[in-house]
Amino acid sequence: MRHLHAEWTKLRTLPSTWWLLAATVALTLTVGTAAVSSVTTQVCPDPAACHEDTVKLSLTGVWLGQAACLVLGALAMGAEYGTGTIRTTLTAMPMRSRVLAAKATALALLTAAASAVGILLSLGTARLILPTNGFEAPSLTDGPTLRAAAGSVLVLALVALLGLSLATLFRDTAGAITLGLSALYVVPLLANIINSPTWQDRVQRWAPIPAALSIQATKNLDRLPIGPWPGLGVLAAYAAGLLALGGVLFRTRDA
Amino acid sequence: MTTTSTPTVTPYRSQLHPARAGFLRLLRAEWTKFWTVRAWLLVLAIAAVVTVVISQLGASGSSTSGNVEPTLAPDGTVVRDSFHFTHRELTGDGTVTVRVTALESADGRALEPWAKAGLIVKESLEPGAPYAAVLATPGHGVRTQWNFTHDTAGGASDLATAPTWLRLTRAGDRVTAYESADGRTWSEIKDVRLESLPRTVHVGAFVATPMHQILRRSFGGTSETAGGGVVTASFDRLALRGTSATPAWTSADVGGGVPNGPGPQDAEPGATKLSPTGVYTLTGRGDIAPDETLGDTVQMSFQGVFVGILFMVALGTLFVTSEYKRGLIRTTFTATPSRTKVLAAKTVVIAAVTFAVALPATALSFTLAQSRLRENGFKPPAFPDLSLMEAPALRAVVGSAALLSLVAVLALGVGVVLRTSAGAIATVVVLVILPQILAFALPLPAAQWLLRVTPAAAFAIQQGATYYPFVDHNCLPESGCYPMTPVSGLSVLAAYALAALLLAAWSLRRRDA
């Protein structure tokens, strides 16, 4: 508990933390709103046959918000290595695995709280905008919508943990962020442009980001390459696996 | 008492005023800072290798059935060439004239803006043979088109309101197109030269229409369905002046049933009906135009560049943020108080180094990916051999290297402004990569807007396919189409890099180090 308190103090007293959390909310909301307002019923042959997944569209902002979460996660550990605070931390709290666990907990809770705000605001805005474009407003109490919203919050928290574990592995912010961004953006991009259906399918199943975002789907679930919860599980497995690996190295390596 | 006299030594002082140190010296200083960090050289090497390797993987994942025999234009372009033709032979010089009175859809669907009815001079009835045509369209007025890739606009007359007179005159290997509103005063549209046109050619009236395209796009899926349309055109006063071996007009479907012709294989053939009053009614399908539905083998060779970008961003950022982190920036500015000069030297060094490494990497990516694509069925004649030293390929290779280099410069500028590696790297990667991912998902107008206004527009430089303005084409991001032309796309990124540098220069002068 004392570990958690220490990590919470470190995290909350950094100005960059609040900037990044504000960025997560703002970016998620902005992109989501822009995406929702760009869609009209004219894209469908007729309004009744419109299969636009409006819930997923209103949560598009996660694509941008995750970058802020990754940076936040990476900085939570990378900044300590950058400034040398890590040595003070480990002198004060020699139980290294507890330090990492406390960091992960504080980070995950904080990111989840901020993401929940961002996601709820996105859905709220979508409820206001969609009826003006001729679509039905998504209801928050609806099962699939609830799953998409809760899942998106989990995705953002897991991305922050991914950043934390990469920074623990690399002991360096720049390297962790570069690798993290390649997993979040470049792999999905390659999956889209690669001209081979087999590889597209493989990437969408096993790469963390396209797989995890299948949780946002509320329509045509049978056409997804991977189901919503298993997809989120893929990202969780990456985050947990890397965090465990980071934890082992954290214990065995010099600070 | 002994005194030791120590000889006084004047310490070395540079003769140069520190603020006036030459720019070359500054370049050398920055270059030394770069190459002495072994990790950065390693990152550069990894960037080059990864770019080449991922490009290979991307290319070997691509495949095409490729067993369709394409129709080739005289210049080697893959084209569609099928239309309904009411023709006579013409030996030597001559003139053919007609009045087009109507052009209507014959299958109940809306008329395509580029449906065609008019006159054509064609070397032979073989698909792909050289031709020159003057034609009326429902959406684009009267046009002269020849040899598939050339198009000149004539008047803006609309068949829905008034008939149009058209005339083609052949003299030697020149064909001249005219139009008229009344059949008396003629205005020339274009004088076309068809290389080595034989003495005997086919002339007459024709009708054609591009396919109907229905596009449906939603998150995670695009369906583009195309169906061959059928159109009917009415002509009268069809007259040929000149020597002809065939006394009567005969009708034929040029390119009918060719595998890449539009429409189902068992489609009804075209027909010509002649009324007693001399009205020819032609019904037909097909199109005379370049085929733009083939894959772009140039673009398919550069998929590694997306990964290479990450390393360039990291390098560009770290080249300045690591100085802030270690406090070296204060030494740098003490040695060279002119901060803009330092920024300029850093920019030159990072741009030159990244370009010098990226160019061989993209050239190698292209060469290796081309041979891989060839194994996967992207072969001539549909996919002609591309030379590294010629226009689309050379532009894409040099352009991709410039893209990587500009991204590094952009990262440098953002790094100076933000001063932290984490923020700068994330900002630049998001700016360059995210728009493309969103473009796959967002509705088409929003997607195309994103690919115009963000640095992601620069990837247009990798396009090798030519999109002709006289062919309706859905520019879909998922099929690799960028809405901007190659060079203007790259200049969007250049503008971003320049803006970042200006902002960096301003903040360097304003802020403490």
What brief labels describe this structure?
heterodimer; A: 255 residues; mainly alpha; 11 helices; 76% helix; globular; B: 513 residues; alpha+beta; Jelly Rolls; 13-stranded antiparallel beta sheet; three-stranded antiparallel beta sheet
Describe what this molecule looks like in 3D:
The complex is a heterodimer of chains A (255) and B (513). By secondary structure, chain A is mainly alpha-helical. Chain A has one domain (2-252). Chain A is 76% helix and 0% strand. The longest helix of chain A is centred in the middle third of the chain and has 34 residues, at 96-129. The radius of gyration of chain A is 19 Å and the shape is globular. Chain A starts with a helix and ends with a helix. The model of chain A has no long low-confidence stretch (mean pLDDT 88). Chain B is an alpha+beta fold. In chain B, strands 3, 4, 5, 6, 7, 8, 9, 10, 11, 14, 15, 16 and 17 form a 13-stranded antiparallel sheet that branches. The radius of gyration of chain B is 31 Å and the shape is elongated. At the A-B interface, helix 2, helix 4 and helix 8 of A face helix 2, strand 12, helix 3, helix 7 and helix 8 of B.
Question: What's a quick, concise take on this entry?
Answer:
With 255 residues, chain A is an all-alpha fold. Chain A has helices spanning 2-13, 15-38, 54-58, 62-83, 85-92, 96-129, 143-170, 173-193, 197-206, 208-212, 228-252.
**Strand segment count of chain A:** 0
**Secondary-structure element series of chain B:** HHEEEEEEEEEEEEEEEEEEHHHHHHH
**What does the main sheet of chain A amount to?**
none
The strand count of chain B comes to 18
Overall tally of domains of chain A: 1
Name the helix and strand elements of chain A from N-terminus to C-terminus, one letter apiece. Answer: HHHHHHHHHHH
Mean pLDDT across all amino acids of chain A = 88
Distance between the termini of chain A: 23 Å
Strand content of chain B: 15-25%
Largest interface (CB < 8 Å): A-B, 48 and 47 residues
Using the alpha-carbon principal axes, give the shape of chain A. Answer: globular
What characterizes the major β-sheet of chain B?
Answer: 13 strands, antiparallel
Q: Low-confidence spans of chain B: pLDDT under 50, at least 5 residues?
A: 257-266
The chain-level structural class of chain B is alpha+beta
Radius of gyration of chain A: 19 Å
Helix content of chain B: 25-40%
Domains counted in the coordinates of chain B: how many?
2
Low-confidence stretches of chain A: none
